[in-house]
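Project standup — Tuesday

K.O.: blocked on the structure for the chain from last sprint. Re-posting the sequence here as requested.
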Amino acid sequence: MNQDLQAVTEQVNRASGPLRALTEEIGKVLVGQRYMVERLLVGLLADGHVLLEGVPGLAKTLAIRSLADAVNVSFHRIQFTPDLLPADLVGTLIYNQSKGTFETKKGPVFANFILADEINRAPAKVQSALLESMQERQVTLGDETYPLPDPFLVLATQNPIEQAGTYPLPEAQVDRFMLKLKVGYPNRDEERRILRIHSTDSAEQINAVLEPSLIIEARDVVKRIYLDEKIENYILDIVFATRDPESYKLKIAVNGTETPLRPMISYGASPRATLYLARAARAWAFLQGRAYVIPEDIRAVGHDVLRHRILPSFEAEAEELTSDDLVRAVLHGIEVP
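H.V.: unblocked you, prediction finished:
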């Protein structure tokens, strides 16, 4: 086992070099937002789609575009609007009158990186058109099924404060995203740097520093990162505690009083959360330069994996408790191995 860990550690050190170059390249134009950049890398390494939620102007689109520019892959930005049609996303069949046959016209989803900008502005029919692409990595047009390029990553943004003209994502669609990020404001020093960088005419250019083959290689290394049985049980305890908090005697503070957690959760996390927690934790361990997962890795990505998979009850909403509050109570209440 020690020899295996040593071999994987060497592979991690070798494969993580290009990722550091990628982070430095993105840092040319993106000030601060380290949390967002690191979680985007987790999604890239763990082969999981990422949903970014935050008010306008927090560089969500800039971060995704910078990531795409720094990787030598095909990239399409799709602006979701209420009048968007599924065919505008995945493509359609067009009748060729001269040949008397239907020809396939592929949509913008046929790219390595997809930026679904303001995804909650399109109706459910368009949002659901992404489901097959995100889960099966393929698109069906007519009688033919077309594979999507590898790597394939959907990075979506949404604005949480605007309700007019928006369509909340269906639960099935949200669950397809490995991570949901809550993007916050930069601090004062970071905003001062943003002011100085972007108040000049000479904007930095992002260069492609990473090839797709290196991403595939890094993903193979991530899959080899060791996950101990104790860590597996820790992941299972966390997920099962979201479904049955009573068995774990979990409580949450409400107005200064310890209250049972069970009435605050309508629905817990699905088995997909178990898989994504393990994959995201492995990717996080890789970014830390380790060949094995520790409990801190689980806790580092726990909120991002679980916040969109735990549905607060009406009672929780009445007490102004969010899904993040519920995840925090679960992570705090489960014993760390």
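K.O.: great, moving the ticket to review. The chain has a mean pLDDT of 86. The CA atoms of residues 178 and 303 lie 11 Å apart.
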